[in-house]
Amino acid sequence: MTDRNIPVTEDELHAYVDNELPAERCGDVEAWLAAHPDDAARVQSWRAMAEALHARYDSVIDETVPKRLEIERLVQQPRKWVYGAVAATLAAFIVGGGTGWFARGAATAPSAFQNLTVHAIEAHRLYVVEVRHPVEVPGSERSHLQQWLTKRCGWVVRAPELTGAGLKLVGGRLLPGSAGPASFMMYESASGERFTIYTAKSDAEATQMRYAAEGKESTLFWADDGVVYAVVSTGVDRGRLTQIAQAVYDQMEKKG
Amino acid sequence: MSAFRQSVEAMIPALRRYARALARDADIADDLVQDTLVRALRSERLFLGGDVRSWLYTILTNLNKNRRRSLARRPQFMPLLDNNPDASGTEAEGRDIARALATLVEEQRSVLLLVMLEGLSYREVADIQGVPIGTVMSRLARARAHVKASLEGERTALRRVK
Fold first, then answer.
1. What stretches pass through the bilayer (chain A) (predicted)?
2. Which of B20, B96, B147 is closest, CB to CB, to A57?
3. Structural domain that includes position B103
4. Which CATH superfamily is domain A67-255 in?
5. Which of A113, B48, B71, B95 has its CB surrounded by the most CB atoms within 10 Å?
6. Range of weakest confidence among A166-175, A205-214, B89-98, B147-156
7. What is the pTM of this model?
């Protein structure tokens, strides 16, 4: 038997409420509470707090689990799943003309990405109009650019080779993102159309490719290996943006 | 479906509840759950037995910590007035508890929810957060004191208005 004269500590009160107290001490605590109304009131308030938490959040348990959280959907080899989703996205983009499908895609884009795509589009707008100083490091110094951005960003930044798509690397720069540094690279075609690739740290490990548009700018973006990539263009040419995004995606995929 | 997958699936409703209370925003909460599941399923072969439940809570807690870190420097937007005088007692109470939770620092909110809402033991929470049991207990005590003060503060403020 424990001595009733040993004062009950605050830790013991918490342990009592949480059923963590050794059974032989519970009687002592109950006797203590009967004699100490302040402590009894505190214990009561913690119980009420637990009830309030359950009253507020237990309803989530009964909600239908959203489709995107179904195990069957998630188990198809995550990487292939992402790649398959990208292919499906691109096909829908080209074949379906996109509108309806993408209206849905944009609406379901996780909120965490909203800021990021806004940043990518803003950076694109700000710098594509620059004639003299569009970038900090010119495309002629490709390897230096890659090393520098990789070092400053903390993930591997590669300037993909897009000559196959008729694009030449103009260069790149380091940008402040919402959660640390972001890399920004600009490409240009012979006719002067400019595409930019923005990368930043992502909360999501890997996601499907998604589409977002604001004004004249549109972007295809996805996360891979904890980094989000956004390919941005001005003036919607779906086939073209898709072609570039696909090329960028393929090269990032090989990198790993 | 493998036993592993079944035990992961059985945890989805509870993970959603924990994430909802942790992140407040329903979409963000489900993003967290989705990332947790993807990670868990990807590591199926690496999982050598043990408690799937604790492991899932651990992944979700860590993902949320990373998310919070990346949000840390962004200004927080809080509604100036969201008191709905017509709200029923329970609704108003739910809003109060949600608001009180929002004022807690991350580790304290996580401890409070894991113990009080999810019913985990101090030992399990210590493993999830990677800290000694004593730290869990002091975080819990501080969280409870803070939430209690926050709830009482609101009530006092309301009384003063009346």
1. 81-103
2. B20
3. 86-162
4. MucB/RseB, C-terminal domain (3.30.200.100)
5. A113
6. B89-98
7. 0.55
